[in-house]
Amino acid sequence: MRILGLDVGSHTVGVAVSDEMGWTAQGIETVRRKPHQPDEVFERIGDFIKQYDVKEIVVGLPKNMNGSIGPSGEACQEFARQAEARYGVPVVLWDERLTTMAAQKMLISADVSRKKRKQVIDKMAAVLILQGYLDSRQLKK
């Protein structure tokens, strides 16, 4: 069963997918969000759901360091609600605090140029979100 991981931002959505066994996450793409075409990002995600036969979606939930949810978190909750309604696939919200920062540090330590980092940071954050979720599921078994 494959699971899709999403790092939802105001301008882009990073996308990752699990392997069939649900052990590892791989980055797929960073999808640009266009304010004048809000359905386009959902259409692209729908393509991934079909292509990979996705049975569950994990959406990163940005929380404040004190655990509260601000405007970005509320926007991600709304995105998750819309995704669940559109695709009929269960959507899980996953605490993503510091994942973008961790992705940035990983890319810097790998000596990835600033320009290239900007192109892949959201996809890498989606990988970290999904991998954290997958790891938590393995611990429960």
From TrEMBL:
Source taxonomy: Bacteria, Bacillati, Bacillota, Bacilli, Bacillales
Signal peptide (UniProt feature, chain positions): none
Species assigned in the record: Fictibacillus fluitans
Annotated localization: Cytoplasm
Biological role: Could be a nuclease involved in processing of the 5'-end of pre-16S rRNA.
UniProt KW Heme keyword: no
Family: Belongs to the YqgF HJR family.
SUPFAM superfamilies tied to this protein: Ribonuclease H-like (SSF53098)
NCBIfam families documented for this protein: RNAse_H_YqgF
E.C. designation(s): 3.1.-.-
Cross-referenced Gene3D superfamilies: YqgF/RNase H-like domain
YqgF/RNase H-like domain: residues covered: 1-103
Alphabetic keyword roster: Cytoplasm, Hydrolase, Nuclease, Ribosome biogenesis
Name of the protein: Putative pre-16S rRNA nuclease
Pfam families: RuvX
Keyword Nuclease recorded: yes
Highest taxon above the source species: Bacteria
Chief localisation class: cytoplasm
